Amino acid sequence: MTRDPARAAPATLPEGVVSLADHERHSALLLDEAAQAYFNGGAADEITLRANIAAWQRVELLPRVMRRLEGGHTRVDLLGRTLAHPILVAPMAYQRLAHPQGEQATALAAATLGAGLVLSTQATALLEDVARLVLPEPMRGPLWFQLYLLPDRAFMRELIHRVEAAGFEALVLTVDAPVQGARDRERRAGFRRPADVTAVNLAARLAPKPLVLQSGQSALFDDLLTHAPTWDDLGWLRSITHLPILLKGVVHPDDGREAVAQGAAGLIVSNHGGRTLDTMPATATLLPPMVQAVQGAVPVLVDGGIRRGTDVLKAVALGASAVLVGRPVLHGLANAGAVGVAHVLRLLRDELEIAMALSGCRTLADAPGALAPVGR
Ligand SMILES: Cc1cc2nc3c(=O)[nH]c(=O)nc-3n(C[C@H](O)[C@H](O)[C@H](O)COP(=O)(O)O)c2cc1C
Fold first, then answer.
1. What distance in angstroms lies between residue 326's CA and the mean position of ligand 1's atoms?
2. 212-233 pLDDT, tens per residue?
3. Helices marked H in the chain — which ranges?
C-alpha cells in the first residue's frame, strides 16, 4: 500500500500550499504511514537527516543594498551548458509509490521548469520513455542517469549503452550506498514495496546468485560488499562510455582529490539525504572543504535538506555549481503529479530570485558576497 485509496491524488493543489514544507504536510494526508516512512525517513536516529536541514538554516545572509539589479538572472554554467537556474531533481527510486505517473510526471515537470533531472537506476519508468519526454523540451535542464554498480558487468554495459542511445548526457555513479542504511523508521512502519512497483530498467539482469555463507562469514563483508564500487570501477566505467561521470556521495576532501585524479567529471556532495550512515555531518558543512579540495578542477554539486530558495543561494555562495532536491519533489508528486512537482520547482526558483534580489545579488556570481561573515 502506498497511497491511501480513499484519498486519490487530485490534479490540482489546494490553496494554502505555498512552501515546500506545506507540500510535505499536505502529502501526509494522501500517503499512508509506510510510504511516508520510506520517503521521509532516514537512517537510525535520523541525526544527519535533521542536521541537513538545520545546517542550511544556520548559514546567515547579510544583504547588500542599493545595488543595480536590472538584467539579473539565475543562470549558471555546468558541464558545457548554460542552465536557466541551478536546481536539479535528485535521483529517487520507485516514484510510482507516490503517484501512478511516477518518474514520467517528475520528468515532464522538471523539463518544463528548466530543472535538471537525474533518473534513478531504480526508476519505475523506462529510461527511454523518460528521455523521450524530456529531450524535446526547449527549456529543459540537463538529463542524467544515476547508476548503482551491479555485479553483472555485461548487464551494466548494456544498460549504459541504452542510456547513451536514449540521449542522457551524463552518468551519476552513487558511491555512498553499497548497502542500505539501517532505516528504522521504515522498518517500524512495516514498509514493503508493492509487487507491481519495480525497477523496470533492471528487468533483464541476471538474478543474483543465492548467498551461501560459511560459518563465521558475514552477509555484508563476504557477499554484498564484494560488489561495492571501487576506484577501479570508475576506470572501468570510463573505459566503456563516452559520457561524463559524476560521483554522488563523495564527502571526504581526500576522496574528492582522488576523484579528480581518476577522471570524475564532477562531484555531488551528498549524505544520501541522511538515509545511509547516520551521524555524518550535514552537507552544508561538508561542501566548503570539498570546494577547497578540488580547486575548481570539476564542478561540485550538493544535495540534502534544500528546502528554500535561500538554501539554494547559500549553497551556491559556498561554492556549489548547482543543487539537487530530493524529498520535496516526491511530496509535490504525491500531491498533484506533474503539477505538484512543477509547483515545488517553481516555488524554489521564485524563492531563489527573491533571495537574490533581497540580498543584492544580480547574478549567482555575486552569491558569496551575500554570506554573513560567520558563514564565509
Ligand atoms: C525515497 C528516496 C529514494 C532515493 N533513491 C535514490 C536512488 O535511487 N539513488 C540515489 O543515488 N539516491 C537516492 N536517494 C537520495 C537522493 O538522491 C538525495 O541524495 C537525497 O534525497 C537528498 O536529500 P533531500 O531529500 O533532503 O533533498 C533517494 C532519496 C529518497 C528520499
1. 6
2. 777 777 766 666 666 788 999 9
3. 20-27, 33-40, 47-58, 102-112, 127-134, 153-166, 184-188, 231-240, 253-261, 283-294, 309-317, 327-359
Q: Give the model confidence (pLDDT) of 32-55 as tens digits.
A: 999 999 999 999 999 999 999 999
Interacting residues of 315 by C-beta distance below 8 A, sequence separation 6+:
56, 284, 287, 302, 306, 323
Question: What is the DSSP annotation of 156-220?
Answer: HHHHHHHHHHHT--EEEEE-S-SS----HHHHHTT----TT---GGGTTSPPPPPP---TT--TT
Check pocket membership of 174 for ligand 1, CB cut-off 6 A: yes
- Contact, 166 vs 128, CB < 8 A? yes
Euclidean distance between the first and final Cα of the chain, in Å? 46
Annotated active-site residue 272? The verdict is yes
Beta strand pairing call for 76-78 and 81-83? antiparallel
Residue 156 to residue 1: CA distance in whole angstroms: 31
Mutate to test the pocket of ligand 1, among 38, 89, 92 (most ligand atoms within 8 A of CB): 92
DSSP state for residue 153 in the 8-state scheme? H
pTM above 0.90, yes or no: yes
Task: Using DSSP, state whether 305 is helix, strand or coil.
Answer: coil
CA dist., res. 366 & res. 362, Å (int): 7
Give me ligand 1 centre to Cα 91, in Å: 6
- For residue 143, give the nearest of 86, 82, 89, 94 by alpha carbon: 89
For residue 63, how far is its CA from the centre of ligand 1 (angstroms)?
32
Quick check: 282 and 51 in contact, CB under 8 A? yes
